[in-house]
Design brief:
By secondary structure, the protein is an alpha/beta fold. The protein is about 40% helix and about 15% strand. It has twelve helices and twelve strands. The protein is globular. The two termini are about 25 Å apart.
């Protein structure tokens, strides 16, 4: 099997299996207890916290562990704003964890508005600036778009916010950026930043939220006061230690992995445009993370192609896995994708172990899948009504 859906999740790093066993079987102690073994567990959490903080250019005490990137987004939006009313601005191409939480803020009485994006999913900074005034209490713009890989200029956005709405809180969903591109949160100027473990080969069920020193967060889970009294619960010790280990590992190989993945992404672009007509590229190669690439065909539905490709041993996605079980038109509409192209989106996302041979196999499988669908649909419908008849293979 060739796996090209790494924006959805990644395979667990083998070293993490050893860590999970060690901290579940041998060093399983509750970090909140007072005996020596428990204190060793607490120290392991501290070390992991510091490792993640270092990878983000911040202090350890500014990292709050969560159960996921989605939970970190929820905490950021629901627990940071102290005003009981005001304007909340989010990007129109945000992940559903931000988008749906913003809708909850709307129910609670906030004026929620959506900043438009360009055709690649990058928030339009000029249009965003027009929306910012002194009533804004919170702005959330993702760092890297999970659908297209579009890279937002958080530093530029932060400067605009500080000039026009200095009291506004600035959050960014960094789930698709962390471990893939260089991230220094102090230079980016954000107040809150969400990350997730399972996107970088850590276990599922662990994430973190950066919260700038001095910014108060209301309690999200009441209990024993863990995680600065924001999210009480006995800590997920094995996953936290594994997350910390990977934070150190990815920081040491970030540059090499980025270069390799960019070459791979560019190779995919060339192979697609060389071999297929009627393909719409949704990723801006100059201003995006190389780890996510989106395109659309007007000749077949994306979900149909996903299953056809799977039958040939290739795993890709149509977009955010969080929306995979239900039809959504929000992202195609935000990107301005219309007609049959809106139904034909595919997302290819990489990890550092993918190769050009994987891309060649994907291109071959895609061509075979489309030809098979052409034969099937031409056999079962009028040729004039068959959208697949418009497909041209070079």
């Amino acid at each position: 099997m060739i796996y090209l859906d790494n924006a959805a999740t990644t395979a667990l790093d083998e070293k993490c299996l050893d860590i999970i066993r060690e901290y579940n079987v041998e060093r399983f102690y509750n970090p909140s207890a007072l005996y020596r073994k428990a204190m060793e567990s607490a120290n392991a959490i501290k070390q992991a916290r510091n490792s993640i903080a270092k990878s983000l250019g911040v202090k350890g005490e500014e990292i709050i562990f969560t159960a996921s990137g989605s939970e970190a987004d929820n905490i950021a939006l629901l627990c940071s704003v102290r005003a009981k009313s005001g304007k909340v601005i989010i990007g129109s191409s945000e992940h559903s964890a931000v988008y749906n939480t913003a809708l909850e803020l709307k129910v609670r009485g906030y004026d929620v508005v959506f900043a438009p994006c360009d055709k690649f999913g990058r928030t339009d900074v000029g249009e965003l600036e027009k929306l910012i005034d002194n009533t804004v209490v919170l702005i959330s713009v993702m760092h890297v778009c999970n659908e297209t890989g579009a890279l937002n200029d958080l530093s530029a956005i932060s400067k605009i916010i500080k000039a026009k709405a200095p009291r506004a809180i600035f959050h960014s969903d960094g789930v698709q950026a962390y471990g893939k591109i260089p991230v220094n949160l102090k230079s980016l100027g954000v107040d809150l930043y969400s990350i997730s473990g399972h996107k970088i080969h850590a276990p599922k069920g662990i994430g973190a939220l950066y919260c700038r020193s001095g910014l108060y967060l209301r309690t999200f889970v009441f209990g024993g006061g863990q995680e600065n009294n924001v999210r009480s619960a006995t800590e997920n010790l094995p996953s936290i230690v594994a997350f910390g280990y990977l934070a150190e590992k990815i920081l040491s190989s970030l540059t090499d992995n980025y270069k390799k993945t960019k070459e791979l992404r560019d190779y995919l672009y060339q192979k697609l445009t060389d071999n297929f007509e009627n393909v719409k590229i949704n990723t801006d190669l100059q201003h995006s993370s190389p780890y996510v690439f989106s395109f659309a065909l007007n000749s077949a539905r994306g979900e149909v192609l996903v299953h056809c490709l799977e039958d040939r041993g290739i795993i890709v996605g149509t977009g955010s896995a969080c929306n995979s079980q239900k039809s959504t038109k929000r992202i195609p509409a935000a990107l301005g994708i219309e007609g049959d192209y809106a139904q034909g989106m595919l997302r290819v996302s990489f990890n550092e172990n993918n190769t050009k041979d994987d891309i060649d196999a994907f291109i071959d499988a895609l061509a075979q899948s489309l030809e098979e669908l052409i034969k099937y649909q031409n056999k079962n419908s009028n040729k004039d009504d068959c959208i697949l008849s418009r497909l041209k293979l070079r």
